[in-house]
Design goal:
16 helices; elongated; 670 residues
Length: 670
């Protein structure tokens, strides 16, 4: 019975061809007389697709001939092995009109079916579930309608599914979330899906680019699993969706944002929020019926403010521009206050100069446009007082880390203050961008608008030193070997020393912690967070008298971060309660780095000393009493690092070495 299948299919195809060509008797006769039975089963299945195409304006299927023995030489077809079995069909942007025949299910070795940017209509055939080796299914930008077949959830090899920009409807099939090998793209955007987002979608891996934009989905976004890590762009264009990460309150209450541990705030934990999202939400408060009226009032006020700002800027631009340029030269040694850096491209969306909006690529190697950045899939990887950090996956190129800064501008009541704030922000960001060192997290671009400030960095996938030492979603299942720990702290020391020495202004980091030391693919250290303290805490206060000119001079926001975070603060900078009180200093950076060294050697948290002491005091007392700290205490390299760490954490700041000396001492070890 199975052996007769190709002959039956061939006969059916010949009849279909004849019926489709009744207007041309010669063509019908040729179709019936052609030896289609010579084709193998895969070729016959593809002929079914050709006959299902009613319009092929570009002749994309002209080479699909039934006289061939197999389809391996046909345009858009690839075969695997020597048996003439089809492994891929790729016919993108060919303007093909027609439908998808169920005979495609006979392509049992098919791994890729890519037919985007055509005019295919009808429903996705249910029989497609038979393609068990399919890894890529791309039917985007067609005119397909109807529900998504639930059988797609049984395609155990599927890694990439793109059904965007069609007319599909019904509810989101929960079975898709259970695809075991889904790892690339799940794009269901710009269709007509209705209903809520199934909680099962929280089980989709964080690495998958999920896109549900432009549908008619409704209800609260489930705060479970990887859905907590999604950025707002994954849900845009669904007016009836509410809850985090959208800034839309759900009816009957406020959707509480999931809290993400501050220890993972350094762009480091792709899955940090997943467990947090499973916690029960707090009791909701009833919403006020006056919210829509208040929203209208706010919008009117904002529009009026923009108009006033524009008028004031026209009057004051010349004088204020000269004033700010002189201020920037004094602050950064000349030229730092320019809108763009030398060799950068200043890209403003329509009327950017007047609207106070600017997007600047710090170097020519960064080719992502603002629109691409804002539309790309984004995943929350960290949250702190400084703002939220996303891993952004563009359509092309590598992922980037985007930090959305907190504390937006509070208006422009001082007659041009918004303009001054923008110039101050650009000067600070330009100074951060000039920091170029292999062991410093590199700023690639920045974006400023009155209500939005973004810093774009290279994405570093291996988390932070903190997660590597103490555990976390990105941590390795095995402890870091000593040689790797030593290499990490050596690189971090070189990076911090560079920040201290790279400018005559003697920059200060101000917030050195193990969470600020990020690790790339090869576990090389990159110091992150440079300049954030000032940008967040004081960049908008440029008119305030006596503001510090040291980037990073604002104290690290450690209040509420736990005893471990306070342990990084040097004694001379602490208030009576232990929280930072004085402005950060380079000597304070050295102390904090010494605590990081002790973490790396002992594997303990900064507050995990014994007898109620923090780590630094416990280690210092142990050395004074000549007590062994661990099994590795006797190793020469470990002892050398201990002594460097104790020098960094001297109570008297004048006794601490400079970071350059610390880096040189560590480089001599091993």
């Amino acid at each position: 019975m199975a052996a007769a299948a190709p002959q039956v299919l061939a006969l059916a195809l010949a009849v279909a061809a004849a019926l489709a060509a009744l207007a041309s008797p010669a063509a019908a006769l040729a179709a019936l007389a052609s030896p289609a039975a010579a084709l193998n089963t895969d070729g016959l299945a593809l002929l079914a697709l050709k006959f299902a195409v009613s319009d092929d304006p570009g002749g994309a299927l002209a080479t699909w001939r039934d006289a061939d023995a197999d389809p391996c030489g046909w345009a858009g077809v690839t075969c695997a092995g020597g048996g003439g079995r089809v492994a891929g069909v790729e016919l993108a942007n060919a303007s093909l009109a027609g439908y998808l025949p169920s005979e495609l299910s006979l392509l049992s070795e098919l791994q890729e079916l890519s037919l985007p940017y055509n005019r295919l209509s009808g429903q996705i055939p249910v029989a497609i579930a038979a393609l068990q080796k399919l890894t890529t299914l791309d039917l985007a930008h067609n005119q397909l309608y109807g529900p998504v077949p639930t059988g797609i959830g049984r395609l155990v090899s599927l890694a990439r599914l793109d059904l965007s920009s069609n007319q599909l409807n019904g509810t989101l099939p929960p079975a898709i979330a259970g695809l075991p090998r889904l790892s690339g793209v799940l794009n269901l955007s710009y269709n007509h899906f209705t209903g809520g987002i199934p909680p099962e979608y929280g089980g989709i891996p964080v690495a998958v680019s999920l896109d549900l934009r432009g549908n008619d989905l409704a209800g609260e976004i489930p705060q479970v699993g990887s859905l907590v890590n999604q950025g707002p762009t994954a849900f845009d264009g669904n007016p009836r969706l509410c809850g985090f990460p959208l800034k839309v309150e759900c009816a009957g209450g406020v959707s509480d944002e999931p809290r993400i541990p501050q220890g993972n705030a350094g762009m480091s934990d792709p899955g940090a929020a997943a467990e947090v999202g499973r916690r029960p939400q707090q009791k909701r408060r009833s919403s006020s019926p006056a919210v829509p009226i208040l929203a209208v009032i706010v919008v009117v006020a904002v529009v009026a403010g923009v108009v006033l700002q524009w008028q004031c800027r026209r009057r004051c631009a010349a004088a204020a521009g000269d004033e700010e340029k002189e201020s920037a030269k004094d602050k950064y040694g000349g030229g730092g206050g320019a809108v763009t850096l030398a060799g950068s491209e200043d890209r403003r969306s329509g009327g950017g100069g007047e609207e106070g909006e600017v997007f600047v690529a710090v170097d020519d190697g960064f080719g992502m446009e603002l629109e691409e950045l804002l539309r790309a899939s984004a995943y929350v990887v960290g949250k702190s007082r400084g703002g939220i950090v996303y891993r952004v996956v563009p359509g092309r190129g590598p992922a980037v880390a985007v930090r959305r800064l907190s504390e937006p501008d509070d208006g422009d009541s001082d007659g041009g203050g918004g303009w001054r704030r923008r110039r101050a922000f650009e000067a600070e960001a330009a100074a951060i961008g000039r920091a170029r060192h292999p062991n410093v997290a590199r700023l690639r671009a920045y974006y400023y608008a009155p209500d939005e400030k973004l810093l774009i960095y290279d994405y570093l996938p291996n988390g932070s030193l903190h997660s590597a030492l103490h555990g976390g979603p990105t941590a390795s299942p095995t402890p870091l070997p000593w040689s790797v720990r030593l290499s990490i702290v050596q690189g971090a020391a070189r990076g911090l020393a560079y920040l201290h020495e790279c400018s005559p202004r003697r920059y200060v980091h101000g917030c050195i912690k193990s969470t600020k030391i990020l690790l790339d693919e090869e576990l090389h250290a990159h110091v992150s967070g440079f300049g954030l303290a000032r940008l967040v805490a004081g960049a908008h206060k440029t008119a305030a008298a006596g503001s510090s000119k040291k980037l990073g001079s604002a104290a690290c926001a450690l209040r509420g971060a736990g005893a471990g975070a306070v342990s990084y603060v040097a004694p001379e900078l602490r208030a009576p309660g232990g929280a930072p009180a004085a402005a950060a200093t380079q000597k304070g950076d050295v102390f904090a780095f010494g605590v990081v060294l002790l973490e790396a050697v002992t594997g303990r948290e900064p507050a995990e000393g014994e007898g109620g002491m923090d780590l630094e005091a416990w280690v210092r007392r142990a050395f004074k009493e000549e007590r062994p700290l661990s099994e590795v205490h006797a190793k020469k390299q470990v002892l050398a690092v201990f002594h460097v760490a104790l020098g960094c954490t001297e109570p008297d700041p004048e006794m601490r070495p400079r970071m350059r000396a610390v880096a040189e001492s560590l480089d001599r070890i091993g």
